[in-house]
Amino acid sequence: MVMDKLKLQILPKVSLITFIAGLVTIIFSPGWGIEAANAFLRAHGGGMDSVQFSAILQGSINSFTIIGAVLFFLGGLGCLISIIFSEMQKQ
Length: 91
Hints:
The chain has 2 helices and no strands. By secondary structure, the protein is mainly alpha-helical.
């Protein structure tokens, strides 16, 4: 019983942090993708075909966007579950 109460106190906080982290990741994914693609370019001698660079850039942006979307979804789901459980405890 004590463990369940502790989980219900921690869940909303962790969920909110995860939700915000996902939102921030989604918003900043283009910038972070550009930085990652540029780092890849520097690591490989600074020269490559523009089509290859474009593919690496788009892949990097998509990766950050997907990670952000997963965090956003899980955080939102956790917030929803914590709201439902807190309402059930009030009854």
